Amino acid sequence: MIDGRVVLERFPAGGPRGSWPAEEFAQDRRMEGQSAEVVMDLATDAFLVIVPCAEAVAG
Prior knowledge:
By secondary structure, the chain is α+β, with helices and mostly antiparallel strands. Helix content is 29%, strand content 34%. The chain is built from two helices and three strands. It has helices at 21-31, 53-58, and strands at residues 5-12, 37-41, 46-52.
């Protein structure tokens, strides 16, 4: 959990050029009604797909 948010999935930052797997995963979650967003975790060099804690518990 990060500041009241839950990490749904992690994606390495070094993906193939033109590939956006974290954004695609987040978009799929938004289509399901979740408030998913992508943030960068500089410490691990990864993109995180996160949702508010309450949504993760409800979903």
